[in-house]
Amino acid sequence: MDPRSQNNSDNQIHCDGEEDQRSGGDENDKLQNFKHNIHEGGEVIHENVKRIDMKKTLNDTTFILTCLKNHFVFYNLSEAELENIVNKMFYCEAAAGAYIFKQQDHATCFFILQRGSLEVIVNEKAKRELKTGDGFGELALLYNAPRSASVKCFENCNLWGIDRNTFRRAVEEMITKEYEENRKFMEVVRFFHNLTNEQKDAIAAVLIVQKFYKNQIIVNEGDPGSSFYIIKEGTVSVLKGNKEVRKLYKGDSFGEQALYYNTVRQMTVRAEDDVKCLALGRDSLTKILGDQVHVVTFRNLQKWAFEKNALLSKLTKAQIDKVLDVMKISSCKAGDVILKKGTQANQKIIVIIEGSLKKSKSGITVATKAQAWGEEYFLQTNKAKILDDDIVMETDGVIAEITADNFIDCIQGELEEVIKKNEKILEKKLQKSDQTKKKEAQNIKKSELLHIKTIAYGQFGPVYLVKAKYNQQLYVLKAFNKNQINEQTLEKQYLMLFLLLEIVNFPFIISFMKTFKDTLDVYFLLEYVRGMELFDVIRDIGLLSTYDSQFYVASMILITEYLHHQNIIYRDIKPENFMVDDKGFLKLIDLGTAKIVKGKQGIIRTYTIIGTPHYMAPEIICGKGYNCLVDLWSIGICLYEFMCGMVPFGEEAEDPYEIYEEIIKKDITYPNYLKDKKAKKLMDQLLSRVPEVRLGGSYASLKGNPWFENFDWEKLLEKEIKTPYLPPADKLLPELEIKSLEQNGKMIEEEIKQEQSVRQMDGQNQGDQGWEKDF
Fold first, then answer.
1. Assigned CATH for 417-528+734-761
2. Which Enzyme Commission number(s) are on file for it (predicted)?
3. Other C-beta atoms within 10 Å of 321: how many?
4. Which of 120, 461, 504, 750 gets the most CB atoms within 10 Å of its CB?
5. Is-catalytic flag, 321?
């Protein structure tokens, strides 16, 4: 059985909070199934347990910590985060013969059994026994879904528990606080000064907090070095042999050389009192910045020199990158002559990476760190100036230089024309495919829409295929029931969806036209994509070839690149959410799980458990917060599925618990029939459990991956590339059927009134609620 062949709504996970409860029904009726409600911090706990106020002993804390470490939900939490969870757990008891919860009950808490024994029952059949130290109910911490099993007490039982909202708040508070502290510390550490904000953000996410006790040796002279440390709290002594060289305090750092080279420690570092350090390993750093860390920092300095230079900053980003690729880096000693007196000043452009540059006789400093020199002579149109003094290194340092000929080749070659051409192509396509269509659609009235066919029933109402009398074009009209949205407190989410649809404007994403509303529903008028779901297409094709996979993965990458540059995270990349249109090109058709992730403080992390289990990134499952890089994990899953015919984690599993545990713990393996080594390397990158590794530094780097070596991104954007699959006519809605339905059909208003009449009889006429005033 293909576990992914279920209906999309059954397979997709939403968590309460940001996308609050998606299940319908009367909540009060549901609560009648539960015998006890414990109010903790305003949250209702539905499980049948009795809370007892009891202070934890040291033994209790140790016992709980040991148990938590055996469960996948807590697998990636730090010691400090686990201790914070333990502090918030409550003690409770349940009587012999009682059910703590029953299958399909509302789920709130995770429990650890301290005393007694329990029976797990599924579909009225005993499955296993739980004893002291066992935990159960983990999935309740991740999302709001009914219990998949019953748990009954064999005897009187004592337990430790924590509810979902307390758990999520505790983790979010700790992660946010720790990340912000780490990021702040990085700003005062010299090593990080030459990195971009994006690189600093990525590194802050992988810093590890380590504790050392008084007199404990942190690093030992002569030992191999592989980690760099920043002191967060406390004082350390730096020793050479037995002699103290200096003391380091909060904000100081040591071990920097270990990040650049395989080296041994030159000195011993000992904790003077209890010390807390942020540790960064060379392996983690190189995964983010690449093997040559010093080259990355040098390049950043060169780029800043260009960007803050009045003349060089006029170059395009692509031109600057091209120039930096060609610039030669070299170490220099104080007094080294860079350009001799009597030569033309416009021979080269020089960037100072370390040190400074001066005129030899006058001693005037002409450039310091992260500054360029020579561009004012180089870019002059009149006769080049002859130097009247030697230009020499003022101090020992490192410089980058480029000759006149190489510079001209970089800025006046084909690169510039290609960039301009791509920009024009994209601009033209956006104007044609979206802007013009949207402008036309503003004249469409709901009363003039012809009902062609009801093509689906969404969670909150029907989905219609309609034709506009105004321009004779086909559209999709989605209805959303205001009463259901209000009952489930999803007003905020649908306002977010409306805002997202208004923002998004990209050829490979479905176009939003306009909204309508009446007393019962709001409506979104969307582009009609005539085609097939990618889910069905890849099953028609079978195992995809390298080119087929490149085509679909490249299309997904273009889509996510666009969304991420708009500060939008998607969170549910999977074949079911893409259509292959009648020309064979991909189109993203649903933005229901997307979210804007930029706030007043810049890019923010989000914590909602949302998505489809087989495609969810591990950081979503762990609840530690995540960013746009989760979308690249999902693309990696899709690539694996295309070329291997299955998903890499939980292929045979139906229980979300089993899927999640594999995603977090299982190493990726490849079937013997996958021979494409470059594809495997790209999958390894996209499916890295270190999110910052997936992008490879930038989207330009990702698109330049060796697997895409012969792939034409320009032609894909132009839609002039060969498509792997054209949906056959018999799987598309035939034109003749559309014409027949059109001739015999009725106006959409009649169809809507007929569907709404039942709800009106039930008194569901809501009128305007306020949240939809802009629709």
1. 3.30.200.20
2. 2.7.11.12
3. 17
4. 461
5. no
How far is residue 687's CA from residue 672's CA, in Å, rounded to a whole number? 19
Residues β-bridged to residue 337: 392
Separation of alpha carbons 290 and 696, rounded Å: 8
Task: State the pLDDT at residue 379.
Answer: 52
Give residue 366's region: left, alpha or beta (phi > 0; psi -120 to 50). Answer: alpha
Domain locations in the chain as residue ranges: 33-167, 189-291, 294-412, 417-528+734-761, 532-728
- Whether the CB-CB separation of 513 and 501 falls below 8 Å is answered with no
Residue-level pLDDT at 32: 32
Helix (H), strand (E), coil (C) string for 246-269: EEECCCCEECCHHHHCCEECCCEE
CA distance 265 to 761: 80
Q: Are the CB atoms for 156 and 96 separated by under 8 Å?
A: yes
33-167 maps to which CATH number? 2.60.120.10
The string of DSSP codes covering 684-708 is: HHHT-SSHHHHHTTSHHHHHT-GGG
Q: Which of 163, 548, 572, 581 is catalytic?
A: 572
Q: Are 345 and 374 in contact (CB under 8 A)?
A: yes
Contact 85, 167 (CB under 8 A): yes
Task: Please name the residue that has the structure tokens 């504790």.
Answer: 211
Task: Extract the tokens encoding 714.
Answer: 């320009």
Residue type at position 203 = I
* CA–CA–CA angle 210, 212, 217 (5° rounding): 115
Query: Domain 189-291 has what CATH class?
Result: mainly beta
- What distance lies between CA 224 and its chain's CA centroid? 35
Of residues 515, 509, 535, the one with CA closest to residue 590: 509
* Residue 62 confidence (pLDDT): 93
Q: Of 374, 376, 377, whose CA–CA distance to 399 is shortest?
A: 374
- CATH topology of 189-291 equal to that of 294-412? yes
CB 497 within 8 A of CB 568: no
- Going from the C-alpha of 655 to that of each of 3, 401, 650, 651, 660, the distances in angstroms are 10, 59, 9, 11, 9
Tokens of 123: 């579909």
Q: What is the CATH number of domain 532-728?
A: 1.10.510.10
CB atoms within 10 A of CB 371: 18
Low-confidence ranges of the chain (pLDDT < 70): 1-44, 76, 190-191, 194, 258-262, 289-297, 377-384, 412-439, 599-603, 734, 736, 740, 743-744, 758-775
pLDDT, position 581: 94
Looking at residue 189, the DSSP 8-state letter turns out to be -
Per-residue tokens: 754? 């007929």
Sign of the CA dihedral 660, 666, 669, 671? Answer: negative
Give the span between the Cα atoms of 88 and 94, in whole angstroms: 20
182 and 115 Cβ atoms separated by less than 8 Å: no
Pairing of strands 356-359, 348-354: unpaired
Write down the pTM of the prediction: 0.66
> Which one, of 686, 670, 585, lies nearest residue 635 by Cα?
686
